[in-house]
């Protein structure tokens, strides 16, 4: 893998959405936030709905531009990159896994995994095949995504996310549509990508059991860091989430009173 010891750093990264050029700015979706994710680290991001999790992920992954602050992926500040260089960086140095696996239905499973390499003009060689082997689907490369189960499709999405050996893998609710046993298979693959291959993973999840696979949980509330928990256990994570949910509900009541 390329780059420095830190896979991802955010310095003072904030995001305020504007409704239009003349409309007043709304409250920041993300207040200035510092974050360092070393290589071989699995970070879960949790918080009530609307707390800024997706905004953080989108800014960190170079899918959205922060209003202020600096995002570095493997030491490269991405704010100064033009669209062409930024999309190349996303393709080569960042992997994505979404709740909806985002596979291309008309391509075979192997072609889906090869796609990030093909788009970069690289010869995929054996990499899609060995990537599918690693997620236990070495014999399904010729199938279409529709022929696989939901959990298998998500494993293909992980193989695709890892095929360029990215510095950071971003996952937004990767197990949100899966039953608990299938979710565990997917989480075990992300865990192995971290432990065996040194990828960094940043995963947004609502599920305390999913977060318990991570090394650390970052809790967000109203666009700010509300806490961090190392070596998270599902029960403790669940307790903190219920507390943040209660606070969010009473804050909303105050606003409407
Ligand atoms: P989460 O993923 O934690 O549910 P989001 O990051 O999606 O939260 O949203 C944080 C806040 O920013 C919310 O108040 C949401 O309504 C607002 N928001 C998110 N995306 C947009 C957008 N594209 N335009 C305007 N407001 C947005
Ligand atoms: Mg979200």
Structure, explained:
This protein has 257 residues and is α/β, with parallel strands linked by helices. The chain has one domain (8-256): Rossmann fold, CATH 3.40.50.300. 37% of the residues lie in helices and 23% in strands. The strands form two sheets. A six-stranded mixed β-sheet has the order 6-7-8-3-9-10, sandwiched between helices. The longest helix has 23 residues, at 234-256. The protein is globular, with a radius of gyration of 19 Å. The mean pLDDT is 93. It binds adenosine-5'-diphosphate and magnesium ion. Residues 53-54 line the site of magnesium ion.
Keywords, separated by commas or semicolons:
257 residues; alpha/beta; Rossmann fold; 6-stranded mixed beta sheet; 4-stranded antiparallel beta sheet; 8 helices; binds magnesium ion
How much helix, percentage-wise, in residues? 25-40%
What low-confidence regions span 5 or more consecutive residues with pLDDT below 50?
A: none
Q: Please report the distance between the alpha carbons of the first and last residues.
A: 53 Å
Q: Give the overall silhouette.
A: globular
Number of helices: 8
Sheet-strand content, in percent, reads 15-25%
Task: Supply the CATH class.
Answer: Alpha Beta
Write the element-wise H/E pattern from the N-terminal end onward. Answer: EEEHEEHEHHHEHEHEEH
Query: What characterizes the major β-sheet?
Result: 6 strands, mixed
CATH topology, what is it called? Rossmann fold
Widest sheet: strand ordering: 6-7-8-3-9-10
Number of domains: 1
CATH architecture: 3-Layer(aba) Sandwich
Name the bound molecules: adenosine-5'-diphosphate, magnesium ion
Judged by helices, strands and strand pairing, the structural class is alpha/beta
Give the CATH H-level superfamily. P-loop containing nucleotide triphosphate hydrolases
